[in-house]
User: Fold these one by one.
Assistant:
Number 1:
Amino acid sequence: MNIKMDRRNFLKTSALVLSSAMLAKYSGTAKLFANTRNVKDFSIELISDNPDLAGSLIEKLINSDFNNYRVVKYSEFSIDGTQNGDIVYFNDGKLVNYKKSNDNVSQKLTEISKTLELPKLIDNPKKIRFYTQHESAKAKNYLVIHDGTIVDSIKASVQNKEIKVKGSDGNLLLSAQDGKMSVKESSCKHKTCVKTGTISKSGEYLVCIPNRIVIMAE
């Protein structure tokens, strides 16, 4: 499997580009890779001040150690403020302490961490993520993204909570209930985001173009 990243920024132009894989996809024509039966999902997430280098290093790792996957998804966002830059690795839904594990992937992640000089505090970093998932996977978090930058992250486990979000042309009122997210109120004219209803599965999203806001389930 040979993959190359095609990074996309939300609302960089007046049109919002969203693929079925959400946020980003690999360039080139679609390919069918090796048999995916009994393959476990994984997620590698980095917060870094060098997303190009980080992305290329993880690409190399995926091409060498995860080459039996049919589709690997990718997303990239900016984060406001100071964040702790590091790598988070999940395998089959379980958090892996790669610094204390001896498997091949963990050893390579340790080397990548050293190359990127992680962990460290970073001002306004990038969050990049490579992951696989079943189409029916339930959301664990909801990212609130304004103009391409994450402004909030809401746990799917939050019960009966309303969150006010400031957009470019007004405000949105989000509603989190029973693992689902919806836009309860919006200052936009057509209220398409309100009419969309609820989202609850990883990869689903709500969009308010006038306010330049996307709520993404991950």
Number 2:
Amino acid sequence: MAEAPVSLQFREAVTETEIRACHPVMAQLRPHLDESAFLQQVQRQRMQGYRLVAGLDAAEQVIVVAGYVLCEKLAWGRHLYVDDLVTAADRRSSGAGAAMLDWLRARALEAGCAALHLDSGVQRIDAHRFYDRVVFERSALHFSLDLPANPAPDPAAEPVPERIGGIRRQDHLQQVLERRLPGAVSGDEGEGEGEGEEDDDDFLDPSHEGGLDTDFDP
């Protein structure tokens, strides 16, 4: 993974002031949460084991944030799950995202974890290329089901497309898993694959990285 910028420091956001300082960057990933709702949500989730981490530059400005939990499951054993990961739009391609993953990996090793895990929407091709380069493996498809107690879907909402880029949605899911999509590269194939695409190591979609995404569902 890319080395951290010399002045980048990582600090867990614990106090109200520290959590609020993360909001401008996190809002690029979770735009449905205003500052007050974000603060309350983080405080609730911290009681369930959630941790929010800020990457700060030399001017003490938050330029990358991540949320994670330490978990244990029958399938994966002890692991670190990345709920949220986003770099400030004006600081992408600076190595901050890769540096944050380095920090999370070190935290996972320190906590005795066997692996890092995250989910990424199937349509996030540039993000997939980033994860391929930092040696993540495509190991599963994510499925979800809304329960009756949840709010009913907005009838005016745009329907989930049946096709993605001319490919049937279910076929697209399988192609993503098998790395058969144009532009998807594995960690040993180098950078810059895919003519005409921006090669942005820190591309993190404004609606999701490292958590659940409504667009992910078939």
Number 3:
Amino acid sequence: MNKNEVSDETCSIYRARGRDNGAQCSSMIKCMNCDHTTHKCFTPPSYKIYHTDEYGKVSGEEKMMQEIYQRGPIACGVAVPDSLENYTGGIYEDKTGDTELVHDISVTGFGTTEDGTKYWTVRNSWGSHWGEQGFFRVVRGTNNIGIESDCAWATPKDTWTNDERHHTTEEERNDPLNEELLKDMPEVKPKFL
């Protein structure tokens, strides 16, 4: 985000795909809209963009807490044991020792229970039906699920005051990968009742 512009989720929905398990990048992956009358999808003529100004890495309980206090949420890699996928509430603690980082989350805060249990408050990307309305709490201070080992912070660059936008070129509009995206990922085609 520091070197390249990104769009927001209103035109680039999260598809749970990455560089090694998804479609090749195209202008439609960066931003796509669909016409409800023609049922055709397209890259809009312009769309809002975002950048980061500063960024860095952080790890360890105290440094993470300080970063959250100073600048807000941080992104961290975590392991995903089966018990996390089945989490429904409370303070989560993995007992298997799994620290293989396979998923990214956002640590939004931290706290301590009345009985003294320290925890991180974490926003996940699995939907509001999961966990505590899309969030979970995990024990803090023990690197449980590897949460305290690989995190990053960033500060946003102001692109909204002057409404900075990407202006789609003819080449982007006609990118052959756009059609491939629609073929390979039928779930992005609009469905109407």
